[in-house]
Amino acid sequence: MSLASYAARRAALGLVQVLAVVTLVFFLVEALPGDAAVALAGDNPDPARIAQIRAAMRLDLPATERFAQWLAGLPRLDFGESLVSGRPVAQFLFAGIGPTVVLAVLTLVLLLPISVLVGVLAALREGSLLDRALTSVSVALHSIPEFALAVVLIAVFGVQLAWLPPTAVGADVLAEPAVLVLPLVVLLARPICSISRLVRAGMVDALASDYVRHARRLGIGETRVRFAHALPNALAPAVQQVARTTDWLLGGVIVVEAVFVIPGLGTVLVDSVAARDLPVVQGLAVVFAVTTVAVNLLADLVAFRLAPRAEVVA
């Protein structure tokens, strides 16, 4: 199968997944017990407030008609209006997307090269003191929850040593890179541990494979054998793990933004859930779903391109 045909099939599947998530999000809101407007209006609902919520959520229309209208507005980034402020949901998304995108992109940009470097070093020194040390550190870091690691880093490097800003309060996240150092460390710690172990295992298996032995018999240099033939095969499962890490990253960003008080999409989501601002929650769910599907699609394409490597020395 060619890369183009595989990409078309995966893109079609991704579109179906996005539609399924969008449908699920909408009808989960519909499944709220009783009258959603009354539930959202609070313990002592005001009739005017209830009427305002019903108008904003179009509860006077049939559910299928409201779903069709909401679905038609998504391509135009029309997610409806906030029940709390009356502002378009898209304004909340655009206001919080900057810090979140910076955090996520920096995490993904740093994640793969650092993980590959650690995994390759451990594989090339299999059984050595370096390999055992990297394994021990990986297991230890992977067992620490994000919020616990964040609190420790803030206490040590932000408060006691005062080397880095402990939070983003009063800081411009996009203009002050030092604010992002501790959040990036928290977001990178666990994924680097898991992906580097995958790279190590894949590299060890690849170096012991028949096609690598055949390459060596042909007189190909050891450096080329390791990095041109063995490494690409070790990277395929790691790239797929990066996609799965992206799913985790969406949740990790919410925790990190809450702990470090970073005004991103995670903070918007926490505030919206606390205020029961369902249109904003729905919009964020759609954004997270599309992001997850897109990153998984990209990772599958990269893994598909990397996987067939055994024939290069035949």
What does this structure look like?
This protein has 314 residues and is mostly helical. It has a domain at 89-265: MetI-like fold (Orthogonal Bundle). It is 74% helix and 0% strand. Mean pLDDT is 77; it is low at 308-314.
Query: Helical percent range?
Result: over 70%
Label the structural class.
mainly alpha
Strand content: under 5%
CATH class of the domain at 89-265: Mainly Alpha
Mean pLDDT: 77
The largest sheet, given as strand count, sense and whether it forms a barrel, is: none
Return the CATH topology of the domain at 89-265: MetI-like fold
Globally, the shape reads flat
What order do the helices and strands follow?
HHHHHHHHHHHH
Number of helices: 12
Give the name of the CATH architecture of the domain at 89-265: Orthogonal Bundle
End-to-end gap: 20 Å
Parts with pLDDT < 50 across at least 5 consecutive residues: 308-314
**CATH homologous superfamily label of the domain at 89-265:** MetI-like
Radius of gyration: 24 Å
Beta-strand segment tally: 0
Protein name: Peptide/nickel transport system permease protein
Subcellular location: Cell membrane
Pfam families: BPD_transp_1 (PF00528), BPD_transp_1_N (PF19300)
Keywords: Cell membrane, Membrane, Transmembrane, Transmembrane helix, Transport
Architecture blueprint of SSEs:
Elements: H1 3-30, H2 36-41, H3 47-56, H4 63-73, H5 89-124, H6 129-142, H7 146-160, H8 181-207, H9 210-217, H10 222-260, H11 265-274, H12 278-306
Domain ABC transmembrane type-1: 97-299
Subcellular location: Cell membrane
Transmembrane segments: 92-124, 144-163, 175-193, 248-268, 280-299
